């Protein structure tokens, strides 16, 4: 099984999000970066699948040169090859990102052989366009299902499982196939020291496609208006219990 | 002509779809265009439910190959319907399926798609606002293309009826069978059964780092049970293995819309906030009065989760015994 995982370098969650002076991007000067949480699970799953079925894991990212850091993190988790699709520091629209990834994958496949399984995150943690994986898969002629939290490799086929509002759905697809996965698929490992050392020395290949822009153009980013309100402190410790029960009663819950 | 995908709920058109219909009508009126709707595998009488909302025609996509859900086949069928009818825009609610079908149709037609919109204004290009990072940021953007596709976040548009009621023409559309296209197929579906689902629960009692352990969730379970609610948790709780990921509230978990959200020992990073900001009232219990979620909550109790919940449960049990 040769597995390809597409990841994205995104600002580390947790902090307050600051915007650049022109309002078209996130001010990243004081931020750390990470692999999107869905994609980290995708890398973990790929490494596990390869450990069980043999083959190799290739990790691909479209982004700025600094995304090398995220590729190396994936390598330290156990991925075998890293490929940087360098698309500059400005974020691309989803059609352009998909074109860049598709071109890069076609190039890699033309040099060796088609990947058996291609994994994406369900949506990127920052832009969240919910379509890049679908566009790439459809351009490559691969079936794809999103929201995946369970993958089982069969003979020439793959079983994909996802949570829906009222239960669980199971899909079947012929290999080669793609899936857009969600956090919860597995618990990603912490890279070992050995893994980190290996990742540091691994070569990362760079591809520089020049995709044309698509039809979605960002004008500006802004923070949603925050509701003006005061927090009512009901009390401290166990003595607040009466006030809590009053709130529950007021809501008609007890 | 503009096309809006409608999904069924209890034999009628779902509320989220009616929002998309209202938004699509606004776009159609602004551009002097007709408004059509499309439905897959519909069983109820959707046409009757659409007559008040300015939809002139309903296309029912009916074929053997699209009888069961398949993202690729439904998306390709939608792309074919778009070409067949000459639609210049397609809207749907941002449901799992709505988003997935639009993304597949956008890929088939190589047209642009803006997901998770909260507002769309007519013109060429459409000017729109969409959510990024689950709603941490808003993005103002322009969408231009021969066919524009967009999905609408539930709760962003107030449903309104058209000025006049029209009977809706119903047309059946049989897409070309895709014999050679590799595609997925749904093979099994299991229902959760009787339990209250996190996404639709009226009350969610949720725990984070401050709960301390898997066993520490026992009072949260009891409180949820007493209030007829569901138990949720933060990313820390799932990563520590205290709760299953399906309980996680947040950007990478479930977004809730509860009447009351009781956050126990959760500091409230942005990743968590976007999952619970849809709750009507938030009560935060935390030892740290400076925690972000305490600042954003309607009510707060400063104290240890076990201590506070223990006292609350004692009172609730006493009330129940007295009743």
From TrEMBL, chain A:
Signal peptide: none annotated. Residues 23-216 form the Electron transfer flavoprotein alpha/beta-subunit N-terminal domain. This is Electron transfer flavoprotein beta subunit. SUPFAM superfamilies: Adenine nucleotide alpha hydrolases-like. InterPro entries: ETF_a/b_N, ETF_b, ETF_beta_N, Rossmann-like_a/b/a_fold. Heterodimer of an alpha and a beta subunit. Coiled coil: none annotated. GO terms for molecular function: electron transfer activity. Its cofactor is FAD. It comes from the Bacteria. The electron transfer flavoprotein serves as a specific electron acceptor for other dehydrogenases. It transfers the electrons to the main respiratory chain via ETF-ubiquinone oxidoreductase (ETF dehydrogenase). It holds the Pfam family ETF.
TrEMBL record, chain B:
Residues 2-190 form the Electron transfer flavoprotein alpha/beta-subunit N-terminal domain. FAD binds at residues 209, 234-235, 248-252, 265-272, 286. Keywords: FAD, Flavoprotein. One of its GO terms (molecular function) is flavin adenine dinucleotide binding. The keyword Flavoprotein applies. Binds 1 FAD per dimer. One of its GO terms (biological process) is fatty acid beta-oxidation using acyl-CoA dehydrogenase. It comes from the Bacteria. Its cofactor is FAD. InterPro entries: DHS-like_NAD/FAD-binding_dom (IPR029035), ETF_a/b_N (IPR014730), ETF_a/FixB (IPR001308), ETF_asu_C (IPR014731), Rossmann-like_a/b/a_fold (IPR014729). The electron transfer flavoprotein serves as a specific electron acceptor for other dehydrogenases. It transfers the electrons to the main respiratory chain via ETF-ubiquinone oxidoreductase (ETF dehydrogenase). Belongs to the ETF alpha-subunit/FixB family. Heterodimer of an alpha and a beta subunit. This is Electron transfer flavoprotein alpha subunit apoprotein.
């Amino acid at each position: 099984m040769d597995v390809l995982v597409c990841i994205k370098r995104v600002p580390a969650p947790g902090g307050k999000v600051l915007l650049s002076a022109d309002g078209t991007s996130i001010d990243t000067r004081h931020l750390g970066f990470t692999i999107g949480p869905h994609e980290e699970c995708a890398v973990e799953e790929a490494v596990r699948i390869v450990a069980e079925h043999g083959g190799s894991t290739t990790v691909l990212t479209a982004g700025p040169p600094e995304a090398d850091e995220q590729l190396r993190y994936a390598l330290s988790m156990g991925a075998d090859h890293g490929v940087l699709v360098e698309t500059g520091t400005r974020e691309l629209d989803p059609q352009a990102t998909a074109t860049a990834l598709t071109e890069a994958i076609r190039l890699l496949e033309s040099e060796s052989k088609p990947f058996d399984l291609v994994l994406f995150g369900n949506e990127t943690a920052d832009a969240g366009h919910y379509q890049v994986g679908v566009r790439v898969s459809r351009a490559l002629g691969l079936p794809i299902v999103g929201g995946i939290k369970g993958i089982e490799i069969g003979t020439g086929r793959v079983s994909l499982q996802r949570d829906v509002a009222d239960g669980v759905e199971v899909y079947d697809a012929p290999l080669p196939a793609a899936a857009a996965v969600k956090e919860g698929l597995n618990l990603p490992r912490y890279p070992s020291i050995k893994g980190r050392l290996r990742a540091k020395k691994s070569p990362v290949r760079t591809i520089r496609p020049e995709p044309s822009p698509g039809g979605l153009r960002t004008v500006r980013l802004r923070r949603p208006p925050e509701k003006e309100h005061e927090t009512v402190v009901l009390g401290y410790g166990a003595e607040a219990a009466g006030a809590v029960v009053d709130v529950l009663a007021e809501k008609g819950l007890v | 002509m503009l096309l809006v995908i409608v999904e069924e709920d209890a034999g009628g058109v779902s509320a989220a779809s009616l929002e998309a219909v209202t938004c699509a009508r606004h776009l159609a009126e602004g551009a002097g265009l007709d408004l059509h709707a499309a439905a897959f595998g519909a069983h109820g009488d959707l046409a009757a439910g659409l007559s008040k909302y300015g939809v002139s025609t309903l296309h029912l996509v009916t074929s053997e190959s699209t009888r069961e859900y398949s993202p690729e086949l439904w998306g390709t069928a939608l792309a074919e319907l778009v070409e067949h009818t000459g639609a210049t825009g397609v809207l749907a609610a941002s449901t799992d399926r709505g988003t997935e079908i639009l993304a597949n149709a956008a890929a088939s037609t190589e047209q642009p798609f803006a997901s998770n919109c909260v507002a769309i204004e007519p013109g060429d290009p459409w000017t729109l606002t969409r959510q990024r990072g689950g709603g941490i940021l808003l993005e103002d953007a322009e969408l231009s293309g021969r066919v524009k596709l967009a999905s609408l976040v539930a709760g962003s548009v107030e449903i309104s009826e058209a000025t006049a009621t029209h009977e809706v023409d119903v047309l059946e559309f049989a897409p070309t069978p895709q014999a050679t296209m590799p595609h997925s197929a749904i093979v099994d579906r299991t229902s959760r059964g009787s339990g209250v689902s996190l996404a639709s629960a009226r009350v969610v009692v949720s725990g984070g780092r401050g709960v301390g352990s898997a066993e520490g969730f026992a009072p949260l379970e009891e409180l949820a049970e007493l209030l007829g609610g569901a138990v949720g948790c933060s990313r820390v709780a799932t990563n520590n293995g205290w709760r299953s990921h399906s309980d996680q509230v947040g950007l990478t978990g479930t977004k809730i819309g509860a009447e009351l959200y009781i956050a126990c020992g959760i500091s409230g990073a942005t990743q968590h906030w976007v999952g619970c900001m849809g709750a009507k009232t938030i009560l935060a219990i935390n030892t740290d009065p400076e925690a972000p979620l305490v600042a954003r909550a309607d009510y707060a109790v400063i104290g240890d989760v076990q201590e506070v919940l223990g006292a609350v449960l004692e009172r609730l049990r006493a009330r129940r015994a007295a009743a």
